Amino acid sequence: MVRVLPARALQTLLDAVKMDTLSESLDTAMVLALRKTGKSKSIDWPAYVAAYRTCGQRKDRELQITLIDHIGKTLDRLTRMPLIRVSLKLMSGPAHLAGLGALHDFLQRGFDAFSHMKGADEFLAIVIERETALMQELTDLVKRTRAGSLRSSEMSQATITVTNLGDQGSQAVFGVITPPQVALVGFGRVTERPWAENGGLKVLPVVTASLSADHRVSDGHRGALFLRELNELLQHPEDLEK
């Protein structure tokens, strides 16, 4: 393939491999997030948005968009180079023998599509603009929530209350739900306590988290799962900023 394709086309091939690997990783994370919520077989927009935000991975998303733009622009330029179409056809056999047939077919389809466009700048600009806007819309929600800059269309009547009375010295909170909300999570004061772990005794910062829930909406089993997940998240608070 090195003898058949120019350096620019080979670099595009490497970028395509990188993008394919990255895209597969991002898609796998999304599937796992959807499975965790039981939505993998009936995906709707709210489920997709929730999974997207759960996965995060903004830097990887930005890299994916950058690669799409770079590969697209390179393919567009390559369509104007003589003999590239012939070179791609000559590369087909070796690529399939080397197990890179799917990747070669991707490049061939891309080359054909960009050849028919006769200039892909406008198309790529629209794709990059929309993908970037979607990424920002789905990943900036937490930041805008903390900044108090949510739009009215992004807000609805509250369904759950989170309260912290630890700064008032309370060890624990046992809350009463205010209808129409369905749950209340309460946090007490963080205190140092003796804690048995891995057969040893340590002094660790400990906080009591409580959950009050409306049984017309949920049950104790789901409440326990929620508290367990909350506990796991609090073991690595630095990850909550991602």
User: In angstroms, what is the radius of gyration?
Assistant: 26 Å
End-to-end Cα distance, whole Å, is 41 Å
Provide the domain count: 2
The profile of the biggest β sheet is:
3 strands, mixed
Low-confidence stretches: none
What is the helix/strand order? HHHHHHHEEEEEH
Tally of strands = 5
Tally of contiguous helical segments: 8
Give the strand content.
5-15%
The neighbouring-strand order within the major sheet is 1-2-5
- In terms of structural class, how would the helical and strand content be classed? mainly alpha
Quick check: average pLDDT? 81
Tell me, briefly, the overall form: elongated
Percent helix among the residues? 55-70%
How would you explain this protein's 3D organization?
It is built from 8 helices and 5 strands; from the N terminus they run H-H-H-H-H-H-H-E-E-E-E-E-H. It is mostly helical and about 240 residues long. The chain has 2 domains: about 140 residues, no CATH class; about 80 residues, Chloramphenicol acetyltransferase-like domain (Chloramphenicol Acetyltransferase, 2-Layer Sandwich). A hairpin with a 2-residue loop joins strand 3 and strand 4. Helix 3 packs across helix 5 and helix 4 runs antiparallel to helix 5. The longest helix is centred in the N-terminal third of the chain and has 30 residues. About 10% of the residues are buried.
